[in-house]
Amino acid sequence: MNKKSKILKLSLLILLLSSMCIFSQIRNFNDIPKNILKDLDKMGVDDSPFLNNYESAFLNVIFKDKLKGFDFTMKKIGFIRNGGKGKVLYFEMQRKYTIDKNSPCDNGTLYIFNTTQKTESGGYDAAIVYWNKIVIPIDKVIKKLK
């Protein structure tokens, strides 16, 4: 293998790895209003898919750039992680990260459902898929929620 070929392969590998990190970037907790962060202990207290007001406020801030008019308030949200479901684990991860910035944290990928998808999923308005290395097609997310 010649030098140009090695450099090209190395460059492609670096590009691939850096693009993978974009999906799991952790936002700066300093951007989250203090009145929301102080209530992290009231989030993820049960595995009900219906969000409480604290969870809704937090997620509206976390996903503010992806909402496109969607509001988490009074919504039924599925939390899917590699290996199962887990709203409690999602918020536990967020709490750990506020205490220790070296603790791993993945905000996940937000899937907002249209009317048909909401019906197919069992009434979920949206889903957050976290700790998953690949982007899952929305139809598979819906199947996991059924």
Write the layout of secondary structure elements.
Layout: H1 3-23, H2 34-37, H3 53-62, E1 77-81, E2 84-85, H4 87-99, E3 109-112, H5 115-121, E4 126-130, H6 138-145
Parallel strand pairs: 1-4
Antiparallel strand pairs: 1-2, 3-4
Architecture overview:
The structure is a single chain. The protein is of the alpha+beta class and 146 residues long. It has one domain. Helices cover 43% and strands 11% of the residues. It is built from six helices and four strands; from the N terminus they run H-H-H-E-E-H-E-H-E-H. It has helices at residues 3-23, 34-37, 53-62, 87-99, 115-121, 138-145; strands spanning 77-81, 84-85, 109-112, 126-130. Strands 2-1-4-3 form a four-stranded mixed beta sheet, covered by helices on one side. A hairpin with a 2-residue loop joins strand 1 (77-81) and strand 2. Helix 5 packs parallel to helix 6. The longest helix has 21 residues, at 3-23. The radius of gyration is 18 Å and the shape is globular. The model is unreliable at 12-26 (pLDDT under 50).
Name a few traits of the molecule.
146 residues, alpha+beta, 4-stranded mixed beta sheet, globular
Question: Helix segment count?
Answer: 6
How many β-strand stretches?
4
Q: What separation lies between the terminal Cα atoms?
A: 50 Å
Low-confidence stretches: 12-26
Q: Give the overall shape.
A: globular
Helix content: 40-55%
Task: Evaluate the radius of gyration.
Answer: 18 Å
Please list the strands of the largest sheet in the order they lie side by side. Answer: 2-1-4-3
Structural class: alpha+beta
Mean pLDDT: 85
Largest sheet: 4 strands, mixed
Q: In percent terms, what proportion of residues is strand?
A: 5-15%
Number of domains: 1
